[in-house]
Amino acid sequence: MKEKILSLVPGAEFQENKQYLTFLIPSDKMHELALKLKNEPEFNFDYLYCLSGVDYPKYLEIVYHLESTGHRHELVLKVRTAGRENANADTVCDIWKTAEFHEREIYDLLGIKFNHHPDMRRIFLDEDWKGYPLRKDYVDEVNIVEL
Length: 147
Hints:
Elements: H1 2-8, E1 13-15, E2 21-24, H2 30-39, E3 47-55, E4 60-68, E5 73-80, E6 88-90, H3 99-110, E7 113-115
Parallel strand pairs: 2-5, 6-7
Antiparallel strand pairs: 1-2, 3-4, 4-5
């Protein structure tokens, strides 16, 4: 599977991981790859069981954990944003419906906007909330107690 994915996505990088096959995918190739991973019988990744965001100093990252319930194999895909300001990526909620709320949570707490998402708005915080609380540079003088 490693070689097949690397051949499907020019610019993809394999990342060593003891538990999962893990790939860093160029942002503009993620949606196309996700379609193939779900729909092609040799992959059949029908279950997106975890979707999360990670804050790094120079970029934000989206991490997708996929499983094929038929083949019983798992895969992790990572996508980096171009930077921290105006961070965005294409949605995968048209491929895996469960991504719809996960992407809204990532947007709400980290500020990554998902292009073509049908309902890109905050899910936990008020619409007028300033900033993104899970970013490491987030400051809230009223609600956060620092030790």
